[in-house]
Structures are given as C-alpha cells and as structure tokens.
From TrEMBL:
Keywords: Signal. This is CubicO group peptidase (Beta-lactamase class C family). Pfam families: Beta-lactamase. Residues 26-347 form the Beta-lactamase-related domain. SUPFAM superfamilies: beta-lactamase/transpeptidase-like. It comes from Chitinophaga polysaccharea. The keyword Signal applies. Residues 1-20 form the signal peptide.
Length: 364
C-alpha cells in the first residue's frame, strides 16, 4: 500500500511507525548528512496536519555495543528544552497563577528576595517573566562567562545566588536581546515556586501527560547516569560530552526525548486545528510574537515572518532541532554528536526539500 493510505489519527499511527514505508529521498539525504559529519546515530519524526507521516531511525545509539537507534531511543535535546519551559510558563499564565509581566526579583517579584544578597540593583528588580522568555533581561548571555557552564558542583539555587551577586546586568531589561541559558534556569525556579512542584514534575503533569508523552525526562550527567534507552553521546574535535551538569540545566537544556515524543508535543502546540492544542490560541499567539529587541525570537521559539517556528539545541555530543512550518508540517531531528557551524546550517535545511516536494508520498 502507498504511504499516504496509513494517515491514521496521530496516536494510533504511532504504533505503525516501525513498519512505515521508506521514503528514499529522505533516507538518502539523512545518510549523506551522517556520512559527511560522522554522525553515529540519528532519529527523525515528521507530522502533517497533526498526523505522524514519517518516523525513522539511523545508525547507532551505542557504537561500541552496536546497538541501533530505535523508536524508544532518548537523546539530549539541549536548548529545545526552552520550548518546553515556555509552554509550562504559559500553562501557569492560563491558570491565572502567573502573568508574563510579573517581575521576578525583589519584594514584589515572584521569587522575592530568596536569592543573592540585598539590596538588589534597581534593574534587577525590573526583570519580568516575559523578558526572561525573550532573552531580553539585560545580561547573563551565552558566552565564555555563561554561569550555566560554571561551578558544576553548585545546585541551581546556589548558582542563581552566586550569579546575582557576581554578574551584574549589562543592559536595561527589555532593551537588548542576549541569548541566556541562565534566564531559563531562573524560569525553572519560577515554575517551582508558583506550582509547588519540582520543575520536572510540573512539566510532566501540565505539559507532557496531556500530550500522551511518558518517556521524556531530565537527563543525567555522566555516562553511568544514562537513563534507560538513552543513547551514548560522541564528542568531536576533542569535546567531552559528559563534563557538564546536565540535570542542573533542566529548564534550559536538560530534557531527553525520543523524536516521536517531540512530535507528540509539537502537534499539541502548533496552532493547527487538529489535534487540540494544550495552549489557547491567545497563548500560542503570545508564544510566537517576537520581541521589539529581536524580530526573530519570541517566547522560547525562533520565528520568522512566514509563520515558521523552530528551535535548535547544541551541547557536546548533541544536536537537535524542532521545526513547525506554516504549511502544516512539524518535524524533530536528533543526533548524538555535533561538529562545526556548517553542520547546524545543514541540519536546519535537511528536510525542507522533502516537505516542500509535491511528489513526496504522504502528499498523494
């Protein structure tokens, strides 16, 4: 039978994914990419109008033991975690437990004066939830001084206090875009304070379970701390994949997921009619509306004028990307290695030709 004849409802189709008909155009493109960049293992999942139309696994989850990537293989998704955190914040906003314009620090802030030494600098008390989501809080950017890659023995709470005391803001909140992992770490603590649950517990309860996702979780730090079904990560050019405190990165880069679980999430936040989104239309509009400081970034998502949304993730031994296109497709791509900048440019463009090709089987 042709592939287009098995476009069943999304959850039912998931049970058929391992038997899906191969699409040579996609497979050859991915295999060439993996060969060029020495990618040991990779997983993809593509949806169209809310249905999973292609899911495929390539290469090895563990090259030493020759374990292939399979449908249950979990990969670090790195900064794709920010999409998840943004969704969780918006769930709290919908529940009227939070406002995007709430301040974060200070007597009137969500986190009060829990962290660092007082008195706070005036600009610190101006930071809002929205600005943290937009990376416009005024500092703590992802450069050589990124606090999230420092002091690995500190807890998230200790690191926040240390950062507030030792890394003052460099800009007025709301004025400049500066990509900030630390800002999303703070958002994780906001979620905990408001929900009364751990960050991971709240996300699983409010975001993942309504999407039918049970396998996603926060990853461990070392090779020995790998979770069940988690792949092995492979560094290139001397990178060491097991040197960072991944579990502390929870809200900005700590999740591990299968490609099909990410597909489940994407179809529930994509703004398309079916299946029903877990966010209201107003929340999705807010989530995908760019800031004045950066017309290419909204709340946890990169955006463009063509109504495409996406986010990539990168850590030593890890590359990921999720994309929502304006014409009804979403897709997730996961790799257990990374290399130079051209790697990410090519990963970003890997499946566009296939989803735009009228001859691709799912469009028949």
């Amino acid at each position: 039978m042709t592939y287009s004849r098995i476009l069943l409802p999304f959850l039912l189709l998931l049970s058929l994914r391992s038997n899906s008909q191969s699409i040579p155009e996609i497979d050859s493109t991915i295999q060439a990419f993996m060969t060029q960049y020495q990618v040991p293992g990779m997983a993809i999942a593509i949806t169209h109008h809310g249905k999973l139309v292609y899911a495929r696994n390539y290469g090895y989850a563990d090259t030493l033991r020759k374990i292939p990537v399979n449908n249950n293989s979990l990969f670090r998704i790195a900064s794709v975690s920010k999409c998840i955190t943004a969704t969780a914040i918006l769930k709290l906003v919908e529940a009227k437990q939070l406002s995007l314009d709430n301040t974060v620090f200070g007597l009137q802030g969500v986190l009060g004066t829990t962290y660092g030494q007082q008195p706070y600098a005036p600009n610190l008390e101006k930071i809002t939830i929205r600005q943290l989501l937009q990376h416009t809080a005024g500092g703590w950017t992802n450069n050589g001084s990124d606090p999230m890659f420092m002091h690995p023995a500190m807890t998230a709470e200790q690191l926040i206090s240390w950062t507030l005391d030792h890394q003052p803001l460099v800009d007025t909140p709301g004025k400049m875009y500066a990509y900030s992992n630390f800002g999303y770490c703070v958002l994780g603590r906001v979620i905990e304070k408001v929900s009364g649950m751990t960050y991971e517990q709240y996300v699983k309860t409010a975001v993942l379970q309504p999407c039918g996702i049970t396998g996603m979780q926060i990853g461990g730090n070392t090779l020995e701390q790998r979770k069940n079904n988690e792949v092995v990560y492979y560094g290139q050019h001397g990178e060491q994949p097991y040197v960072y405190n991944i579990s502390r990165m929870d809200a900005h880069g700590g999740w591990i997921a299968s490609a099909t679980d990410l597909a489940r999430l994407l179809v529930h936040v994509d703004g398309f009619p079916a299946p029903t989104d877990i966010l209201t239309p107003a929340s999705i509009t807010a989530m995908t509306t760019a800031s004045a400081a950066n017309p290419g970034y909204a709340l946890g998502w990169a955006v463009n004028p063509y109504h495409n949304w996406w986010h990539s993730g990168s850590l030593p031994g890890t590359a990921s990307e999720v994309i929502r296109s304006h014409h009804g497709f979403t897709w997730a791509m996961l790799c257990n290695t990374r290399t130079d900048s051209s790697f990410f440019n090519d990963l970003d463009g890997l499946l566009w030709k296939a989803v735009n090709n009228p001859a691709t089987p799912w469009k028949e």
